[in-house]
Amino acid sequence: MNTIDTxxxxxxxxxxxxxxxxxxxxxxxxxxxxxxVVVNSASEAREKLKxxxxxxxxIDIGLPGESGVEFYKWLQNTESYKNIPALLVSAHAFGFDxxxxxxxxxxxxxxxxxxxxxSRLKKMLNL
Length: 127
Fold this sequence. Notes:
The protein has one domain: Response regulator (Rossmann fold). Helices cover 39% and strands 18% of the residues. It has helices spanning 19-31, 42-51, 68-76, 97-102, 114-124; strands at residues 11-15, 35-39, 56-60, 86-90, 107-109. A five-stranded parallel beta sheet has the order 2-1-3-4-5, sandwiched between helices. β1 (11-15), α1 (19-31) and β2 (35-39) form a beta-alpha-beta unit.
């Protein structure tokens, strides 16, 4: 029988306003052994960061209101969160070409090839 060691389970926060994308990401992350928290906006993400022990974040850059890029920049400039590994995903990176080129090592285009994303996430978490 397979059991999950909850003491070694990592929590991933996924920020995306697309409900279907959230469900799909949840399936793949759960299968890879991660706990998943899904939120729809940057403001909800800030609340979850205060409430829970998140070890990694996956951010869709095309969020309504505050973009995922703006949230990522905030994350990197906030002392208590800047060391949390983050990945960026998007189906449309228009207007963010320069930023995406600078951060291509953490950027994944949709549709996402999940084995690559999971592998990169595990590497960032030293798993």
